Sequence to fold (394 residues):
Amino acid sequence: MDQYQEYTLEDFVLDARFQGWVRHQEATDAVFWKQYIDENPAQADDIQSARKLLDGVYRHYRTEIDEVEIDLEIQGLLERVRTEKLLGLKTEEKEYGRREERIVSEPLKLNESRVVSESGRSVWFGSAFWTRVAACLVLAIGLGWIGWRYYRFNDGYNGLVSGKGLVERVNTSGKQQVIKLADGTQVVLYPQSRLSFAETFQPDQRIVYLSGDAYFQVAKDPKRPFLVHTTDLVTKVLGTSFFVRAQDASDKTLVEVREGKVSVFKQKEFAARKNALAKTPNGMVLTPNQKLIFEHASSEMRRTLSDSPEIVPSDNPKTFEFVNTPASSVLTDIEEAYQIDIIFDRDVMKGCPVTASLGGQPMFSKLSILCEVIEARYEVLDGKIVIYSRGCKS
Fold:
């Protein structure tokens, strides 16, 4: 057991024996890890978090499991966890630096600043100097913004559709417009948005190009995937409902799924394929009530939950009326209604009775009320919900 004593959360996630325990739930592994946690309580939180993260991955691929795809998902998950930790650390460092600066700085005269040279002497600059500096900065930023807008407009959407002989619909009105495509797909095109497509789709795929905002209800056709190309991303589906926000002037592109499942790829990687039959590059899978945000500056894709998750239509809708119901059953009802992965310890949750009427509450309110009742907390991580609890009042 000594080999695990220096392990962090990331080490546990990558450990083969730990993965086997989470994935296969063998009795011998359960005994081993329970004993290890009892003997090393300081690592209990990391072990619990690592177990929940892996559990979410395995549950996501509970059918047609592809080992390579699972490994890629685990690596991507760890990368996003590292990024979130780094961003949090940098934010703390900046705030700490601001506090120190406020403490040690000396009062300056109005419209004056001081720079300390290597020799230790203070060099003072008046307001006229800083006015010239500010003017240069404003000019540089303005030229950069104009250049960036020109690139996004000409090499973005226009570059994608140029020379393809497509039909274009431009919504110059102040309200939404409904466009019906040849395959039966319905597109709600938002104001100041543009959509281009062929009058007749190809036999092997359906392709449209978007600049702006649009909501797609794609007709199901398993033999012909539906592809939405924007400046930064390609969204691939077989039949589902989703929203895309891809303004050429914006620094972000958003894809949000209402029903079904989509795969999202970076445009440059997707376009780099030698031909349409070449293997599709690794993308990010989105399921109902998840959204993806692509940051243009960093070229990073981030998966999270919709701001206001909606109940997915079902033949057996939930009432969300509970009387002495185990918390595990409440969470299962929420999970099934919104089709969002909720990662929690079922053994702990089944011992927590809940009496509550949650029918009229938004999903995040449901979770907040439930966590208050059972003395737990939740967080959103990589488009999933993780519940943390050590038990509840008897």
Residues 89-125, 148-154 have pLDDT under 50 and may be disordered. DSSP finds ten helices and 20 strands in the chain. The longest strand covers residues 206-217.
